[in-house]
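Form P-L/3: holo structure prediction, ligand 4'-deoxy-4'-aminopyridoxal-5'-phosphate.
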Amino acid sequence: MIYLDNAATTKMFEGAASEYKKFACELFYNPSSFYREGRKVKECLESARKSLLSKLGATQGDIIFTSGATESNNLAILGSRRNGSWEYIFSMGEHPSVYNVAKELERQGAIVHYVPLLANGKVDIDKIENLLNEKTRLVCVMHVSNETGAVNDIATISKIVKSKSNALLHVDGVQAFNKIKFSISDLGADTYTISAHKFHGPKGVGALYVKNKNGLKNIVFGGGQEGNLRSGTENVAGIMAMKWANEQIDIEKNYKNTLQLKNTMVDLLSKDKNIKIIETDSPYIMSVSFKGVKGETLARALQDEGVLVSTGSACSTKKMGNRILESMGIKQDEVLSSIRISFNAYMDRKEIVEAGDKILKTASKIANLEI
Ligand code: PMP
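OUTPUT (holo model):
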């Protein structure tokens, strides 16, 4: 099986799984317990926090451990609400774990603005600038699109947000963290979401980077763990496995490898004139459409050939169409003929060549049948 759906999830590193087992079966103590064993586990958690902060290049701020990116995004957005009438700005490119929270804010009576994407998949920064005012509470723009691999210029957006308002800037960094090199202090985000299973850690664990905890309120109530911002006993084994994966990854080396893989796939697929590739900056994700071929039919046929791709983010495949591609101005028939191919740095070129070959053959077979 050639797995080309790494934006949906990645295979856990064996070392991360061993670390998970160690903290599930040996050092299984509750980090909030007063006795020595508990305190030792607490120290381990603190070392995991430092490990993530260091990889983020943070010079200030904290890490709040969560059950993954969905919870981190909910905490960042719902935790930023304040009494009074406030406005919120969301990019149209956001993952459902942000977009559906925006819809909930609207239901609760907030004024919510949605900013469309440009044809290159990036958010329209000028439109954000025009919407900012003293009532803007929060701006949400993802770092890298899980659908297209478009990379938003967060540093520029944050400068504009800070110069034109007192708003907070939340960034969903799930497809960027441990994939592209950046420093959170250069980005200027107030909160930043990460998820372990997108970088070869376990599912169900992630974190929210918070520059200044005073800007945020808890959204679940309980024992007050994680600095009162996220109650519940921490998923210690998951967090320590996430730390292991975090320390294993060499971002620059992986970026180079992955870029070669993507370029190989782009070269192969470009041979077919009926194929259109959306050019984006992340080497990890590409969105491709095949004239006259339904993306879903192609993805299913490829499964039988041993190649796994998706027809969009795994979380939105059940919905009709694709909000993100449509926001980029892509026509409905092209949207429906799109598939997403996503890589990981540990694949080899041979696999990509084999998969590319199968994609070309399968697509042309279907196109001939459908004509
Ligand atoms: N944001 C983005 C950009 C994602 O790609 C995903 C996963 N598809 C999520 C959030 C949700 O992540 P999790 O599975 O950790 O909740």
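COMMENT: Residues 14-248 form a domain with the Aspartate Aminotransferase; domain 2 fold (CATH 3.40.640.10).
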